[in-house]
Amino acid sequence: MDYGHPLQLGVALDHPEAAELAVAAEDAGLDLVIPQAPAGPSEQESPDPAAPGELDPWTLLSWVAGRTERVALAAPALSSPYPAVLARAAASLDLLSRGRLSLVLGTPEHASSVDRLTALEETVDVVRGIWSASPTGFSYRGDHHVLDGAARGPAPAHNIAIWLAGSGEVLDLVARTADGWSTSPADLRDGNAAIDSAASAVGRDPREIRRMVTWDRADSTRLLTGGTADAVAELAARVVEDGAASLVLSVDAALLARFVALAPELREAVATERAARGTVVGTMRSSAVRAARRPGIDYDGLPAALAREAVEPGDAPYATVRSTYLRGGRPGLVLRPADPDEVVEALAFARVQDVPLSVRSGGHGISGRSTNDGGIVIDLSRLNRIDVLNEATRLVRVEPGARWGEVAAHIGPLGWAISSGDFGGVGAGGLATAGGIGFLGRAHGLTIDRVRAVEMVLADGSRVRADAETNPDLFWAARGAGFTMGIATAFEIEAAPVGDVGFAQLIFDASDTADFLVRWAAVVQAAPRELTSFLTIGAPRDGQVVAQTMTVIDSADPERIVELLQPMATIAPLLGQAVQVVPYQAVVQAPPAMQYSEGEPVTRSGLLAHVTPEFAAGAERLIRSRRSFFFQIRALGGATADVAPEATAFAHRWANFSVVAFGANRGHLDAAWDQLGPFEGSYLSFETDPRPERLPEAFPPATLARLREVKRRYDPDNVFRDNTPIAR
User: Fold this and answer.
1) Contact yes or no for 641/510 (Cβ under 8 A)
2) 284-322 confidence digits (pLDDT tens)
3) In 143-201, which residue ranges form alpha helices assigned H by DSSP?
4) What is the pLDDT of residues 75-125, one digit of tens each?
5) What is d(CA 588, CA 424) in angstroms, rounded to the nearest whole number?
6) Cα–Cα distance between 674 and 661 in angstroms, integer?
7) What is the DSSP letter of 664?
8) What pLDDT score does 204 carry?
9) 36 vs 16: CA distance, rounded Å
10) Which CATH superfamily is domain 8-277 in?
C-alpha cells in the first residue's frame, strides 16, 4: 500500500522552545514542522502560560516561518467559523514563507456533531474559492457559510495542500476533496482502505492523497528511546506497508536529537525497500489540476527543476500569472525559471510542444504578446537581480525580471538613473530589448542607448554574450528587436548621472484640442533637452476635453524648473498643477505587487517628426469620436536623435514624438486611426495590429533586411515568432 509519495520527516513542536526546535530541525535536514494543537481543557495539566498548549498555533507557526527558510510548515487541525479569514491568513503566510505552507483542517467545533462534516466541507470550498484570486468576487451559499461577492485573494505562492484530520465520515470527505489525510498510527491502515475505495468511486486516484501520521509524545518517546533498528523498522513499515509518507514525531530537544540521528538510516531503509519493489516515487497532481490542462503540452514530461514553480490552469496562483497588466490570457503552462540554466531547460521543453510560446519579464505587456491562449509562457520575473558592476563607469547589471521602479530605487542613492518608460512596474526585459521611451529620454536617450552588453539564451539553448566586440551583429539586433532573437537573461547598462529632478503634473482644458496639441508639441520641441514631457487625453466629458501632462526636468534647481515649465503653462487654461523636486525613483515607483487584468484593449502606435495642424485635427476627431479611451503623445528627440539610425535596430532617430491610442474595439479604432496616417514609423511595444503593413513601419527596409539576416543566423527555425514575425 505504498503510494510512492516522497518521504517527509517532521516534528510536532511540543515544547516551550518550539521556535528553536524548528530552527534545529531545519538545520538538521528534516522536512516538516507543525505546532502542537492546543490541548482541550480536560487535557491541560497546568495553566502554565509558557506551555505550548497555551500558545496559539497560528501565531507560533508565523513566528517559526520567520525564523526558518526551507523547512515545510503545516498549520495544525485548525477549525474556524470564518474560513475566508483563514484562507487569507494562510495565503499570506504561504507568500511570506515562499510556498512552504500546508493547512490541516479538523471538524469545526462551532458546529453540532451532526453538521460538522458539512461545515468542514464548506470550509474547504470557501478556502479554495478565496485562493482562486481574480478581479471578480466570490459568492457562496451553504448551510454554514454564506459569501456574497467577497474579495478573492491573495493567491498563495503555491497550491497549499489541504489535509483533513479525523476518522469515520471524515474519510469520505478526504477521498472526495482533500490533498492529504492526517491521522494516528492506530487508524492508518483501515482508514487508507476506506479512503482508497471512496476515492476510486468518485474517479480520483488514491495516489493524489498524501497520508500523514503523527505519534503523540508517549509513542514518540517509546520509539526514539528504544533501539534504533527497531525504530527504523517500525517507521519504515508505516511507509512501505501502510502508505504513510509524512512521519511526524512529537519531540523535545533531546528527542529531536535522537530523531535526527536515525533519520539517515530511515531514509535509506525506505529507499532500499522501494527500489527492491520497483515503487515509482513522485507526487501526482490532483484530478482537478489535471482536468484543467490544455492539449498539446506534455505536462508530465516537465523537468523537475521547473516543475515546482510551474503554474498550470488548475493551480491556485494561475489567476496571478495568466494575464498581464492590461489584458487577459489563458496559457496552458507558465514556467518560472530562476536562473539562465533553467531558462535553457524551459526553452528546450517549450520548443517540442506544439503550442504558442510567449516570453514575459515584468508583465506590463501593452502589446499583449507576453501571454497567450493555450500555449506556454516563460515568465522571467524570478530573474530579478540588480548589481552595480563598476561605480566609476556607472555600469549596472540588470536581470530581465527586475522592474524599473526597483532599478531606480537601487541606483538612485548613488545619484544615477536609467531612463525607463513612465511606470515603475514595467519589467526590464521588455523595455531594454524594444526601445524604452522614458521620462529622461530627451536628456539621456532611449533605454537601449545605454545598454552596453546583453546576455541571451538563443533558440538552440546556447548561452551567449553580445556587446560591441562579441557577437556585434546580435548586439545590434538586441537593441530594438531583441525579443525576436532570443531570451535576454541580463543587461549591462550604463546609468546616467541624475540627481533630484523636477516633476510637474499639469492639467489643461484642451477643448480646443487641435490647437492645444500643436502648441504643446511646439513648446516641447523647442525646449532644452533636459525637459521631457508626456501628454495624455481621455474621452471627452460633457463636451470638455481634459489633457494631463507629466513632465520631468533633469534639474534640481527650482528656478530652472519653473523657467522651463512656464511656456507650457500658458498654452491653455490650467485646471490643476503640481510641481515637485523629487528623486527620480519617486517618479517611477514599482507597485507593491504584480498587476493583472481581464481586459482585451487594442492599441495603435505611430512615430512623428512633428505634430502638424493636419495631424492635430485628425487626432481631435479620433478623441471626440470616443473610439479611443486613452490617447498619449510622448516626447522623443534630444539625446535620442544623437544616436545614428544604423547603430541599433531602433532606426527611427528622426522622430520627435511617439503616439499611442487605446480602444476597446479593433475595427473601430483601426478605422479612426488609419485616417491619421500613414505614419513613417511605429513602436512595436505599443502596437497590437497584426496586419503585415505594420512591419515596415516598425523597421525601415535596410533595418528589416539586416534583421532578417541576423535572424537566420541565430534563430533559423523561427522559434521566437510570437512577438513580431520578421522572418520571411
Assistant:
1) no
2) 888 889 999 999 999 999 998 999 899 999 998 898 899
3) 170-177, 188-201
4) 887 777 899 999 999 999 999 999 999 999 988 665 555 588 899 999 999
5) 4
6) 12
7) S
8) 94
9) 11
10) Luciferase-like domain (3.20.20.30)
Is there a contact between 91 and 153 (Cβ–Cβ < 8 Å)?
A: yes
CATH label, 292-379, candidates 3.30.43.10, 3.40.718.10, 3.40.50.300, 3.30.1130.10: 3.30.43.10
Q: Which residues face 248 on adjacent strands? A: 10, 214
Contacts (Cβ under 8 Å, ≥6 apart) of 426: 362, 364, 403, 404, 420
Query: 501-710 adopts what CATH topology?
Result: Vanillyl-alcohol Oxidase; Chain A, domain 3 (3.40.462)
The answer to whether 546 and 573 have CB atoms below 8 angstroms apart is no
Local structure of residue 666 (DSSP, 8 states): H
Are 550 and 524 in contact by the 8 Å Cβ rule? The answer is: no
How far apart (Å, rounded) are the C-alpha atoms in residues 465 and 479?
13
Contact 123/105 with Cβ under 8 angstroms?
A: yes
Question: Quick one: pLDDT at residue 123?
Answer: 93
57-67 and 83-96 helices, crossing angle to 10°: 10
Residue 229: Cβ-neighbour burial (10 angstroms; 0-12, 13-18, 19+): exposed
Residue 411's nearest CA partner among 526, 274, 574, 583 is 583
User: How do strand 496-497 and strand 416-417 relate by DSSP bridges?
Assistant: antiparallel
Q: What is the pLDDT of residue 19?
A: 87
Low-confidence ranges of the chain (pLDDT < 70): 14-16, 37-54, 108-114, 595
Would you kindly state where each structural domain of the chain is located, as residue ranges?
A: 8-277, 292-379, 501-710
* pLDDT attached to residue 114: 59
Burial class (CB in 10 A: 0-12, 13-18, 19+), 472: exposed
Helices 57-67, 18-27: crossing angle, 10 deg rounding = 40
CA distance 14 to 28: 18
According to the model, what pLDDT value does residue 678 have? 79
Torsion angle (degrees, nearest 10) of CA 39, 44, 48, 49: 20
Report the 10 Å Cβ neighbour count for 544: 10
Q: Residue 322 and residue 331: Cα distance in Å, rounded? A: 6
Q: Which residue in the block uniquely carries the three cell numbers 493551480?
A: 315
Q: How far apart are CA 357 and CA 370, in angstroms?
A: 9
Q: Are 232 and 265 in contact (CB under 8 A)?
A: yes
The pLDDT assigned to 235 comes to: 97
Q: Between helices 228-240 and 253-277, what is the axis angle to 10°?
A: 50
**On the CB side of 184, how many CA atoms lie within 13 Å of its CA?**
9
* Cα distance between residue 205 and residue 198, in whole Å: 10
Strands 32-35 and 8-13: parallel
Q: Are 101 and 128 within 8 A, CB to CB?
A: no
User: By 3-state DSSP, what share of the chain in percent is helix, strand and coil, each rounded to 5?
Assistant: 40, 20, 40
How far is 79 from 93, CA to CA, in rounded Å?
17
The residue assigned the cell 490552469 is: 313
C-alpha cell at 609: 517628426
Tell me which residue of 526, 544, 527, 546 sits closest to 536, measured CA to CA. Answer: 546
In angstroms, what CA-CA distances link 153 with 73, 103, 297, 608? 20, 16, 28, 43
Length of the chain counted residue by residue: 728
Per-residue confidence (pLDDT) for residue 65, from 0 to 100: 94
